[in-house]
Every structure is written in structure tokens, then in C-alpha cells.
Amino acid sequence: MSQKRDIAVLVFEGFETLDVMGPIELFGMHPDAFAIHFVASTPGNVASVHRLQVVATEGFESERHFDLVLVPGGIGTRQAIKDEVLLDWIRNRAADAEILTSVCTGSALLAMAGVLDGRRATTNKMAFSWVTEQGPKVNWIARARWVEDGDVFTSSGVSAGMDMTLAVIARLLGQKAAEDAALWAEYTWHRDADHDPFAETWGLTG
User: Fold this and answer.
1) Looking only at Cα atoms, what is the longest distance across the chain?
2) Is 206 domain-assigned?
3) Is 100 among the domain residues?
4) Is residue 49 a part of any domain in this protein?
5) C-alpha angle with apex 71: 37 to 52, nearest 5 degrees?
6) Tens digit of pLDDT for each residue in 188-203?
7) pLDDT digit string (tens) for 117-147?
8) Is residue 147 part of a domain?
């Protein structure tokens, strides 16, 4: 591929660490194909729920075109769903992104932004009830490791974002590229999007 795809990784106070770091580890295994950018309301340091500081180099006013958008979850989503500026950024970026993704309760932000209306989606099973309340027009799938609906990928909780990311890499770069990323990371890829033991753990069906 002659040109890298630019990935916007949305960060906000209290994002879930692995929701971000897991996917970027795997995207980062193909540095010739992807350029990763941390985006926040304003450039600067942003702390995860574990107080890991990342540096957002892009603010919401950035004019850079992003081919992929990654929206993480975490306890910070409880406040972020009230942030209309953040939700507007998601709406605007979703409109022209090649692929829109979320991990864990990040799908609550996509739902509040209205970009999941009429689509199939999933989320963290422990927080399933809260997330689904944010999107009554979404076809929420309780039993799924991740869900692919056209150009939108949503995943279950935390580590599921890595399996979803490999599915995105497979779509964009081919199956071997995804397998290579998993191999280089020494990660066992759960390839079945419907394999979701945690739905049963939390008493969910459907």
C-alpha cells in the first residue's frame, strides 16, 4: 500500500488503558500501513483510569483526515456521554471515516452520538444494561465478542478490542497481515466473533 491510513485514537480522562493500548499494539505491528494519532479535546496529557498518561497530539479542531477512528471505553465514559463537543467530534469523524471502531463502553459514546442508530453493536457485558440505555435505537447484540456492521466495528469488554482490531486488520490488509500481527505480539487471536463466554457469566442472552 502506497499510503498509510491515519488512525484517530480518542482519549479522555478515565479511559480504559487496554482499550487503547491493546489495539494500538496490533495496529502498530504494521507501521508502514498505519499512523496512530492520539486525539483529545485539546492537545496535551490525558490520564487513563490507571493514571497512565498519554500525550494527545491532536485536538478536536484538527483538520487532519482520519481513515479509522478508535473510541475506547472506561469509567470516564460516564462523564464523556454528557460532553456534546466530544459527541459532535464523533459524529463528524464517523461521517467520513473508512472504519469506525469502539472497545468496551466506548459504544455508549457512539450510541449517544447517534452513529449506531439502526445498526448491530455490542459492548462490555458487565456494563451491558447501562450502555444499552444510551442507545434505544441500536440493535444491541448481547452474545458477541465483537460485531461488524458495514464500516462500524464494536467490541465487548477490554481485551475483546484486540480480537476486533485483528479483524479490522484482516479486512484492510488481508488475513495474513492479521495473523502476523498476532504472531509478533504472541497473542492468541479469538477469531470467532460470536464466541462470548462473558455474556453467560453476566446472565445475558440473544
Assistant:
1) 47
2) no
3) yes
4) yes
5) 65
6) 999 999 999 999 999 9
7) 999 999 999 999 999 999 999 999 999 999 9
8) yes
Rounded to whole angstroms, the Cα distance separating 116 from 108 reads: 9
Q: Which residues are catalytic?
A: 104
Enclosing domain of residue 63 = 5-201
**What is each CA distance from 192 to 14, 91, 146, 147, in whole angstroms?**
30, 29, 9, 10
pTM, to two decimals: 0.96
Whether residue 136 contacts residue 187, with contact meaning beta carbons closer than 8 Å, is answered with: no
Nearest to 161 by CA among 107, 203, 108, 85: 107
Q: Domain with 74 in it: what CATH number?
A: 3.40.50.880
The C-alpha angle with vertex 154 and arms to 149 and 157, in degrees rounded to 5, equals 150
Please give the pLDDT value at position 206.
64
Q: In this structure, how many other beta carbons lie within 10 angstroms of the beta carbon of residue 82? A: 10
pLDDT at res. 3 = 86
Angle at 151 between CA 145 and CA 154, to 5 degrees: 25
Number of structural domains in the chain: 1
In this prediction, residue 205 carries a pLDDT of 77
